[in-house]
């Protein structure tokens, strides 16, 4: 299941709950945030000052084989 920078944060966490640990590891306060239903990965990374490519790579790394 690939993730992209245009995917909504809430959609990712709902469809792949194992990704929540990645959001927490990057100290992103997206878990439980009402804005997560509107923010894309790109929006969230920009808002939190996170390198988008590193974050997306971490999301992909946590996908079970």
TrEMBL record:
Pfam family, one: DUF1858
Organism superkingdom: Bacteria
Residue stretches making up the DUF1858 domain: 6-55
Official protein name in the record: Hydrid cluster protein-associated redox disulfide domain protein
């Amino acid at each position: 299941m690939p993730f992209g920078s245009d995917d909504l944060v809430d959609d990712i966490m709902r469809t792949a709950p194992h990704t929540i640990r990645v959001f927490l590891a990057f100290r992103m306060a997206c878990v439980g945030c009402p804005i997560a239903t509107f923010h894309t990965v790109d929006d969230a990374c920009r808002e939190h000052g996170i390198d988008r490519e590193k974050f997306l790579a971490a999301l992909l790394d946590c996908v079970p084989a």
